[in-house]
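As a warm-up, study this chain.
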Amino acid sequence: MGYISELRELVGSRPLIMVGANVIVVNSENQILLQLRTDNKCWGLPGGSMDLGESLEDVAKRELYEETNLIANELSFFNVYSGKEFYYRYPHGDEVYNFVATYICDKYNGELMAEKNEVSFLQFFSIYDLPSNISPPDLPILTEYNQIQRVQ
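Now compare it with the structure written out below.
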């Protein structure tokens, strides 16, 4: 049982500050990897919450591997996100205010494979042609990444 699950047993669904990390995986064609989430049926970045004793980079690497079977050989820090815009209510009712560190990974190995409990499907997309149903906490991150890519 993870740290957040243990907290949920004590506090129920009420809002928690949830610290975590996610990863923008970029392939050789400059496409980004998204996962179709099983909980909200939206596309989002691989990532999740921090366990006790982990660094944010550890979280990013662990979640990337757990959800996609990819091993990050190198991560580059992108940005940290928090605030009212990162409030999220999960379909089952749990509420969180996310504090998320986002990393970019273009050096990875492994065979792409979706973790069946959390991920329905994995697919690479052009940043300029993303699906319309992006998971709400990931939308501002992908919007910023898209804006930076357009400038470059």
